[in-house]
Structures are given as C-alpha cells and as structure tokens.
Design goal:
The complex is a heterotrimer.
Chain A lengths: L2 H7 L3 H32 L3 H26 L8 H21 L8 H20 L4 H18 L4 H4 L5 E2 L16 H24 L1 H11 L1 H6 L4 H27 L1 E2 L6 H14 L6 H19 L3 H15 L3 H5 L5 H7 L7 H21 L8 E4 L2 E4 L3 H21 L8 H7 L5
Antiparallel strand pairs in A: 1-2, 3-4
Chain B lengths: L1 H32 L6 H18 L2 H28 L3 H23 L15 E5 L2 E4 H23 L1 H11 L1 H6 L4 H23 L9 H16 L4 H20 L4 H8 L16 H4 L3 H12 L10
Chain C lengths: L3 H15 L7 E8 L6 H20 L7 E8 L4 H13 L4 E4 L3 H17 L6 E4 L16 E3 L4 H12 L7 E7 L2 H17 L4 E8 L8 H10 L3 E4 L3 H14 L4 E4 L7 H8 L6 E5 L8 H14 L8 H17 L4 H8 L3 E2 L7 E3 L6 E2 L2 E8 L13 E9 L17
Parallel strand pairs in C: 1-2, 1-3, 3-4, 4-5, 6-7, 6-8, 8-9, 9-10
Antiparallel strand pairs in C: 10-14, 11-12, 12-13, 14-15
The chains are: A mainly alpha, B mainly alpha, C alpha/beta.
C-alpha cells in the first residue's frame, strides 16, 4: 500500500488535491531531472566527438519516440517511417537555404517546426491511404509506400538533390544574440531543447484520453468500433502525429549534419528505427530513449572495435524478440528480470551462465569473422588482451562449449519447478509446486 | 512489333515463373500458419550459397537435391526453436523475429563466403541454347527453370488438395485445436510446413543462383518483389501467387519496352499538368520506372482490395 | 629496388601500428570509407592500398623522420557518418584524410572541412580523394582543402568521346546508364561530346535504369538488339553491370561494350561468367595492370605480392597522391598540411603510369592520361590477369590529359 493508494482511498476533496499534488510532484521531479541531465552532459563529456555523438543520439531519441507512437501506442508496425523523417528533413533544409539566401529574420530554433509541419503534411497524404487497416496489411502498405518514395527520390533531383543530396550552412541564418550555431555545442543545446520539448509533448499525448483510445485500438479494435469510436480516424491521427514528430527529428538531423540525402528516406533508416524502438522497449515511454541511445552508440563506437557489429545488432534484436519482448525497459521495470532478481537474490546465480553464453558467443563470432572476412589480416585476433588464433581448433571448442554449456545451464535453471532436480531448487530458492 | 510482343511475353513468362518458384514457399507458409516470413528471401540466398558450395565439391545435380533439403532442415529447426516461442507474443513479434533473422542470415553469409559475388556457374550440361527466335537465342537453363517451376506448382497443388497430409494441414489452418484433439500433432505439422516452404525457397536459390548474381545482398534484391507478388496474388492463395507472379513478370517486362513518358500517359487520362513538386516526374518514361511499377500496384491493391486477386485470408 | 619481403614486413608494421596508441613519431593518415555493409569490399581494398603505400614510404625511411600510419574509419557509405568519423579522426591527431567511395560522402566531407578548417585554424586538415568521380566536388562543391586525384566522370566521358572519334566501326550508339546523378551526367555528356566529335554517329537508344532494382535485364538486352546498335556505352557498375553482361551473353548480343566501371570488384569475374567474346568489353580508366609503363607494372607486382594475386591495384590515383605528398613533404621539410596543399596547387608531375600530369589550381582537379583497355585471355607470363579468371586487360589506346580538359565553375574560398 503506497502513500498514493492510501490517499486515493478516500474521496474527500482535500485528499484528492493532495493526491494529485503528489503525483504531479513526482512527474515534475522526473522531468526536471531529465532536463538537468541534458544541460549537464556536455560538461561531463567535453570532447568534440562526444558532443557530436550526443547530438546524434538526441535526433535518434525524437525519431524513436515518434515511432513508438505508432508501434507501442497504436499497435501499428510500420516499415516505412523514415519517409517522414527524410521528407521533414528535406523540407527543413530547403527552408533553411531559402531563409539564408533571402536574409529573412527566421531564427534557426524555429526550423524544427518546419520539419514537423513537413512531416505532418506528408503524414496526412500517406496516412489517408494507410490507415484503413491495421496489423500485417498496414505493415505491407507502409513498406510499399517506403519503397515508392525511396525509388522516386533519385529521380526528383530538385527536391532530393540526386546522389549528392542537399547541403546547407546553419550558421548563415539570422542569428539573434550572436548565436549563429556554428559551434557544435550550440547545436547540442538546440537539439537537447527540442528533444526535451518533443518528448514532453509526446508524453502528454499518451496521457490524454486520446492516448487511452490509441492503446484501445491496439488491444481490441473490434470492440472499439462497437462502442462507436472510428478506429480508422484514431489510426489516422496517431499516424499524422507520429509523422509530425518524425519530421521534427529529420529537421534536427538536417541542422546537425547540414546535409540530407536520399538514404534518409530509405529502407535502412526505417529498419534502424524499428530496431531501436523494439530493443529499447515498446511498452514503456522511456523504452525508445534507451533503445536510441544504445543502438546509436553501437553504430558509432562498436563498428570501430569489431567487424561483426551488425551481426551483434541482429542477434541482440532476435534475442530481445524471443526472450525479452518488452525490451530493455521491461527488464528493469516492475515485473522485469531485475525486479525478480531483487526479490529473490538467489536468482543472481543466473547472471553467471548468461555472461558465459555472451562471452562464448562473442568468441565464436569474432573467430568467424577473423577466418572469413578478415582473413587477410592474419589468423590472430586480440580479444580482451588475449591473442586468440582463429586457425587452431581450441578457441572454437572453448567458444562452443561456453555457448552450449551455459545455455543448457540457463534452460535447466529456469525450468518450471516440477521439472527441476531438488538440488537446483534448493540452490535457487524456487518453491516446489 | 510482333517481335517486341513475342519477346516481352516470353521473357515475362520466364521471369514470372522464377518469381513463382520463390513465392510458392512464402504463400504456403502464410496460408498454413499465418506467418509472413520476411526472411524468406534469406532462405533463397542460403539455397543459392549451399548450391554453389555443393556444386563446387560434388556437382550441380546432387546440389539440386541436397541444398533444398539442407535449407528445409534449417527452416524446420528455426520454426521449432525460434518461431514457435515467439508465436505466443503475437503477429508483430513474429514479423519482427523473421525480420531480425533476415539480418542475421545476411551477416552469416558474409562472414562465411565473403562480400564479393561468388562464381556460381551454370552447369556445363545445361549451358546451351534451347532455341532461337528472331535472331535471339534462349538458353536451355532458363527453360529448365520454367520446367521446374511448373513441376513445383503441379506437385504443390496435388499435395494440398489431393493428399491426406494436405487435408490435415488445411484443416489445421482453420481449426488447429480440433485437429489437435483428433490426435494429430499440430505443432509438428506447422514445423514441417515451414520447413517445406523454406526448402522451396532454397530450391529457387539453387536454380536462380547461376542466372543472377550470388552475393550477400541478393536477398534484398528479391525480397521486396516477393511481397508484392504475395499481396497482389492474395495472401494465402497458391493459384493467386502463380497468377500474380506471371502478371508482375509480364508487367515489368512490357513496361521496359514502353518508352512513353509519364506525362503522356497522364495526359491521356486527363491530367494535363503536373501537381506541385512532381514536375520532374513528367518526362520520366515508363521504362525508367519499370522496376518500381510493382510497388505502385501493391499499394493500390492494398488500399482498394486488401485481399488481393484471389486471397481468402485477411 | 625495394625487396618484396621487406615491403611485406613494412606493410605488416603499418597495419599493426593501426591498432596501437599514437606514438609521437608517426604521421597518421585517416581513411574514411565503407568498411562494413554492402560497399565494404571496395572500402577495404582502399584501406589495404593506402597501408601498402604507407609501407613503401616507411621502408625507404619514412617522411622527415616520421613513420606513416594509416587508420581506417568506417563511414558505412553515409554522408552524415562521414562527418562524424572525420571529427573522430581529427580528434585523434589525423591531419590527412583520404576517401573515395560515393559522391554524397565526398561532398559532405568537403562541406565539413570547409567549415571546420575555417573555424579551427590550428587543426587544419587536408583531404585527398583518391578515386571519386563526382564532378560536383570540383565545381559547385569545391574546396581548397581537397585534391581530386582521379578523373571525374565528365572528364572520362570527354576522353571516351575523343577515343571514339578514331573508331570507324562505331556507327550506332546505345547509352545505358543508372537513373541517378552520375548516370544522368554520363547520358548528357555523351550526347554533347559525340555531337561535337562524331556527329555521324547515330544514338539509337538511351536507357536510364533505377539502380540495383532490376533483376532481369533480358528485356533491356532485347531493346538493344532491336535498335541495331553496334556499340554500347554504359556507366553501370557492380551488380547491374554483372547482370546486364550476363543477360547479353545469354541472348547472344554482339556489340562493343565501353564501360567506366568494369575494373570494379567482381566485374572481371562477371565478364568471364557472361560468356561474351574476348576483347569486346572495354574500360577507360587512369591505369590498368598491363600498361606499357615499366614503373607502373613494377608497382602492380609489389602490390599483388602484398595484397594477393587476385587483387589489382584498383586505385592508381592513390599512387600519385602518395608520391606527390611525400615529395612535397620532403622538399618543404615539413608535414604541415596547409603548406603542402599550397605547394601542390598547380604542381606538375610524371605519373608512374606514364605521360604528364598536373594539379589544376582553380579547382584542385588532377589531370593525367587516361587509358582504354579491353579484357580478354592473357598468358601467365605475358601479363597480369584479373581476379584469377585468366583474363586480363590489354591496352587499346591512350587519351592525353589535354583531351580531358573540362571547364570548372569552382569559386574556391582560399584561406587568407
């Protein structure tokens, strides 16, 4: 029984007021902490490249959150969401160039709004086509639309810039207070600000009655129709809202990189946002944020360390789909693995076989790449300071043993209680029956 | 003119039958299990690589037999240990699982065989000219593909409509629990069906590998067009998949021959001037956008007739 | 003469250095190219090429007492990623960036360096583009901090048209290109140049095909046949080129194929697989393995000894780049890239491939002879073959740099 439930038990006026104050205070505190974090981050990670990476993460966060509006909230799996990201970005970049050329007093901070409106426009155009159905049909329509746009893009040279794309100079715009956004740190604060505002806005949408209806469409569209709500209209509104925020993300990308190319509307960009959002966790608002941070870091930093970074990404994705369908956010949520381990500490013993499986898997993958794609670099691969020879059978056997052994151990240890031997039950404290 | 039409029909049919060979497995899986296997083109790629490797070691004809079986086995295992688990989480999770699987298979293939296209040749026995028409020669291998595709279609129809196994499978499609209560092992049936679907994809790979380029990105080349075929034909109908494959093959081939511009076509329909931003599209010829026409078809069909041409399932 | 074994050791050393902490006596070169993803094969060959060249320089004592080290940065063929990787490289002390794959990443790098070098005068960084063919990079997107060591596509088309001037058996021409900027550029430039140099040649077909979307080229081959063309000029590359030639071989199409990218990875194998007759597929490029120049063939031999017999020196531009960089560094006795680029502007040199070359000051485009070669069976001791197919390039003609001069619209912003 929490203070919250105690307070809400009574229906006295003052109790209700205190109740909502507590709830609001918690909410305000969380968001204030987030804002503080955004302000303080560049003071902790000072190097130019760290700030550049944080800018990219900021863009990805907005993009992933916009996607979760479709997937997590409305239950619509889209394989073509990048078209709104890209189209919004292109709108923004053309407006930036026009503003700079005509010296109009439009400050850079308003440009993400332009991207959002661009995304909204195309969201209305495509949404009216796509929102009739849900489920698999919607996925296929979104895929088809994505392919159409990304095929048309190289032909429409004036808007998409052909192979070289469209470039811009963000410091050429009207600069009040001398902030021309040339330095990366200024861009960081612009992105951080817009990221915060967009996240807040998207959070609010989920908390409105419309947010409830969106989730209802996800759970049981048939029933919703029966109580008089038009699922089609709900899907349409969800679609255009998601497109709006995707457009904002696209504009932020345009400001950050000062270039937009046809690949920004392509299938790869769409695939990445699916990965980010799902791995992070579609059931929680903070899930896509986690996913965006993790996947962006993997893309930028992991590719320097290993040639197999895409393989790791794919495996991570499949493992999440199979064993943790709520994503990383769910793992640490109220019913997740972390909470379970907290309640019965003996479950921590499971961490060891999990780690060993991961290590064994990494070993096998790195060996595989050393023998295959990187064979011209020689058979030796240095992993965690140990030089491993990919041509000798020993590391392979070790890797296989680790993966198979630990995995079997895990399955054994997490088996239903009645199939577990008594010894193991004692060890992990699982009750019988 | 006659020459053009003849060639377009012939080329369209040949290409369409290859598409059908690929799409048959996917239709089978979807109609039996309701799973849209995004990794289907990846099994096609595995079939091509296995075919290449086995053909290199032993020969093409053993490869034709062994490679599809190997791919089918892998598919069955994936169903048993992967897909079945994910099935409980819903359609979205299933789609995402196969999506991640496609990713992994592509990386695995790159790891083992490298990124450069492999030298998968047409076997010497089939590397001849079947016939010559109007001064253009048609290779025997393409006719071979045509024959295999027709045989596969015939066998599949037979399997599904005339055999006991097909009967049980069709029953399990609509009433899985009832069929289970009658004593049939429904999960095992699903596993076999998935394996069969993947084996068909693998067969398509073994055959198409020498004709097209066998490289890690080949799944991405055929994947999208496959979905168009399935959607146009109707999710769940084998005969629909055949008609759709031939239709798409013919449409694409005829489109290539059409040097008339979009502007002219639009003008004929009544739209004389281009809408905002799309004026660069006006002088583009149909031939230029031929590879994209199937996607247009798919989107239009999904909007106006989501069940496709002959489909029954949603 | 550099002993091959010494060379292998030096290159191995250069590679090993790539994963070590920066030492004070090394000059790092950053290579930004796709090292993962579909374009990774070409990016990796680029990395190996530069490591080989650095190894050669190190084996002869390094530059001004400093050893060269080449570090790879994976941009995944993405222009946005290119800027990030450039930032990372500069942060770790790199002052010379090299890059070749893709037009968008090249333009992005030019843009990034223009702004970065202006905003950070103490960290100015130089950029060598060792194989890119995008004309925009030396026109509207030009940069003082870039030197383009390979001929751009407009120059190559002009050169081909000059060559075709002397080919009497070319009477009906078919243009076959990808539907994107480069392909469209080839289409326009070929029409203009042929109208000027060979107005008697009839252009009987002009096809633009979406990149990497076509599986079956048989209908296109049919069209080429129906047009009666005797020559096809195509900018197709990679998978598109392979499928096109295969379809042509199957259908028994007999034309001369003039390509710009048949030297790419996998393309010689595709030519061989297609069953087309020998010496009917041509390329025009800055060099090939069987050039008359002894110095170039020697370099090719050393390269294959280190990298592998199946891999040709695909980036002749990088050889000239390294040669000229080393020469400038030694002459000026400094590795200050700002001084080096100032001295390279307008410089003349003798490429190892033969003939004369120079770096035009207005746009930093390098001009050099271009060579037309055809591919066919080659005997083992008579020359190099490509990708272990038994077929290799045979020199057909040379186009002098004066015949590749294209005008430029570059408005270069020079530092004060």
């Amino acid at each position: 029984m929490t203070a919250h439930s105690l307070l809400s038990a009574g229906s006295l006026g003052p109790a209700r007021w205190v109740n909502s104050l507590v709830a609001n205070a918690g909410f305000a505190l969380a968001w204030a902490a987030a804002a503080m974090l955004l302000v303080v981050l560049p003071l902790i990670f000072k190097s130019d490249s760290a700030i550049a990476v944080m800018c990219i993460i900021g863009v990805s966060v907005v993009f992933a959150l916009s996607y979760n509006m479709l997937l997590g909230q409305a239950g619509l799996l889209s394989f073509g969401h990048a078209i709104f990201f890209g189209l919004g970005g292109f709108c923004a970049i053309h407006v930036m160039n026009a503003v700079a050329a005509s010296h109009a007093p439009v400050p850079l901070v308003l440009i993400p709004l332009v991207g959002g409106l661009g995304g909204l426009f195309f969201g209305i155009v495509f949404g009216s086509l796509a929102s009739k159905r849900g489920g698999t049909i919607f996925a296929m329509i979104s895929f088809g639309l994505g392919e159409l746009v990304s095929s048309a893009a190289p032909i429409l040279n004036r808007f998409f810039g052909g192979e070289t794309g469209i470039t811009t100079d963000r410091s050429a715009l009207y600069a009040p207070f001398g902030m021309n956004f040339g330095p990366q740190i200024q861009v960081y604060y612009l992105i951080a600000g817009w990221c915060f505002i967009s996240s807040l806005a998207m959070y609010f949408v989920t908390r409105t009655p419309f947010g409830q209806i969106m989730r209802a469409v996800r759970e049981n569209p048939e029933r919703l129709e029966f109580i008089g709500c038009s699922t089609r209209r709900v899907r349409f509104v969800a679609f255009i809202l998601a497109a709006f925020f995707a457009g904002v993300a696209g504009a932020l990308a345009a400001i950050n990189f000062e270039i937009m190319t046809v690949s920004n509307v392509g299938g790869n960009q769409s695939a990445m946002v699916v990965l980010m959002t799902y791995i992070g966790g579609i059931g929680y608002f903070v899930g896509p944020v986690i996913g965006a941070v993790l996947i962006t870091l993997m893309q930028i930093l992991l590719s320097d360390i290993t040639a197999g970074w895409q393989m790791y990404l794919g495996i991570l994705f499949v493992v999440v789909v199979m064993y943790a369908p709520g994503g990383i956010a769910a793992l640490f949520g109220p019913e997740g693995m972390a909470a379970q381990a907290w309640h019965s500490p003996r479950q921590f013993v499971l961490v060891m076989p999990m780690l060993l499986t991961v290590v064994g898997g990494m070993l096998l993958i790195e060996l595989g790449y050393q023998v295959g794609l990187k064979s011209s670099d020689g058979p030796i691969r240095v992993l965690f300071g140990i030089a491993v020879n990919s041509r000798s059978p020993l590391p392979w056997l070790v890797g296989l043993a680790l993966v198979i052994g630990s995995f079997c151990g895990l399955r054994f240890a997490t088996a239903p209680a009645d199939r577990m031997p008594a010894v193991l039950r004692e060890l992990t404290g699982v009750p019988h029956g | 003119m006659l020459q053009l039409v003849t060639f377009s029909i012939l080329n369209g049919l040949l290409y369409g039958m290859l598409l059908f060979l690929l799409a048959s497995g996917l239709t089978l899986i979807f109609s039996m299990m309701g799973v849209l296997n995004i990794a289907h083109a990846s099994f096609y790629m595995l079939g091509a690589y296995f075919g290449f490797q086995i053909a290199k070691e032993i020969g093409f004809w053993p490869a034709l037999l062994i490679a599809p079986l190997a791919v089918g086995l892998i598919g069955a295992l994936i169903e048993r240990y992967g897909l079945r688990r994910v099935h409980a989480y819903g359609h979205v999770a299933e789609l995402l699982f196969t999506f991640g699987l496609a990713f992994i298979i592509e990386e695995l293939v790159q790891m083992i065989w490298g990124r450069v296209p492999v030298d998968y040749r047409i076997p010497a026995g089939l590397n001849t000219t079947a016939f010559t028409l109007f001064n253009t020669s048609y290779p025997t291998f393409r006719v071979f593909i045509l024959l295999i595709a027709v045989a596969v279609f015939g066998l599949l129809m037979l399997l599904v409509t005339k055999t006991r196994v097909g009967l049980i499978v069709r029953a399990a499609l609509t009433q899985p629990r009832m069929v289970g209560m009658l004593g049939h092992d429904v999960p095992r049936i699903f596993m076999l069906v998935f394996g069969l679907g993947c084996a068909l994809a693998g067969l398509a790979g073994v055959i198409a590998g020498p004709v097209f380029v066998t490289q890690p990105s080949m799944a991405g080349v055929f994947g999208p067009i496959l979905f168009v075929v399935i959607v146009v034909g109707g999710l769940g109908s084998l005969a629909g998949a055949l008609i759709a494959s031939l239709l798409i093959g013919l449409v694409q081939t005829f489109a290539v021959a059409l040097n008339v511009s979009i502007g002219t076509v639009m003008g004929a329909v009544g739209i004389s001037s281009p809408p905002l931003l799309l004026d660069e599209l006006w002088p583009v010829t149909i031939a230029q956008i031929a590879p994209v026409v199937p996607y247009l078809l798919m989107v239009l069909l999904l909007i106006f007739r989501p069940t496709g041409l002959l489909g029954r399932r949603m | 003469m550099i002993n091959t074994r010494m060379l292998v050791l030096a290159v191995a050393g250069a590679i090993a250095c790539g994963s070590s902490v920066q030492a004070e006596d090394t000059f790092r070169i950053g290579l930004i190219d796709p090292l993962s993803g579909p374009a990774a094969t070409t990016g990796e060959v680029g990395l190996k090429t530069w490591q080989f060249l650095a190894g050669e320089v190190n084996a002869s004592g390094g530059l001004n007492g400093q050893k060269l080290e080449v570090v790879g940065y994976d941009n995944k063929m993405n222009p946005q990623e290119t800027a990030i990787q450039a930032q990372k490289a500069i942060d770790s002390g790199v002052r010379l960036l090299v890059r070749a794959n893709g037009s968008a990443p090249g333009v992005a790098l030019n843009d990034f360096l223009n702004k970065f070098n202006e905003r950070n005068p103490t960290k100015q960084t130089l950029y060598f583009d060792y194989a890119g063919a995008d004309p925009a990079a030396t026109n509207e997107k030009c940069s003082y901090w870039q030197i383009r060591w390979a001929a751009n596509i407009d120059m190559k088309v002009l050169a081909l048209a000059s060559f075709l001037k002397g080919q009497a058996d070319t009477k009906k021409l078919y243009l076959f290109n990808g539907d994107y900027s480069t392909g469209q550029g080839i289409q326009k430039a070929m029409r203009t140049n042929m109208a000027e140099k060979r107005p008697d040649v009839q252009i009987v077909g002009d096809e633009l095909v979406p990149l990497m979307k076509v599986n079956d080229f048989a209908p296109y081959v049919e069209k080429i046949k129906a047009s009666g063309a005797d020559t096809v000029v195509t900018g197709a590359w990679g998978q598109d080129l392979a499928l096109l030639l295969k379809a042509a071989g199957e259908a028994g199409l007999r034309v001369k194929w003039y390509t710009f990218f048949a030297q790419g990875i996998g393309s010689p194998t595709a030519v061989r697989q297609s069953g087309l007759p020998s010496h009917t597929v041509f390329q025009i490029y800055e060099a090939h393995a069987n050039l008359p120049s002894v110095a170039y063939r020697e370099e090719e031999k050393n390269f294959r000894a280190v990298v592998g017999a199946g891999q040709t020196m695909m980036y002749p531009g990088s050889v000239n780049a390294m040669d000229m960089f080393s020469k400038a560094a030694r002459d000026l006795k400094t590795l200050d890239v700002a001084k080096i680029v100032a001295s390279l502007e307008g410089a003349k040199f003798k490429p190892r491939a033969g003939g004369d070359g120079w770096i035009r000051a207005e746009d930093h485009q390098v001009f050099q002879p271009l060579y037309v070669a055809s591919i066919g069976p080659i005997e083992k001791d008579k020359g190099f073959d490509e990708e272990n197919t038994g077929w290799g390039w045979r020199q057909i003609g040379e186009v002098k740099p004066e015949d590749t001069l294209v005008p430029t619209t570059c408005q270069m912003k020079r530092p004060q």
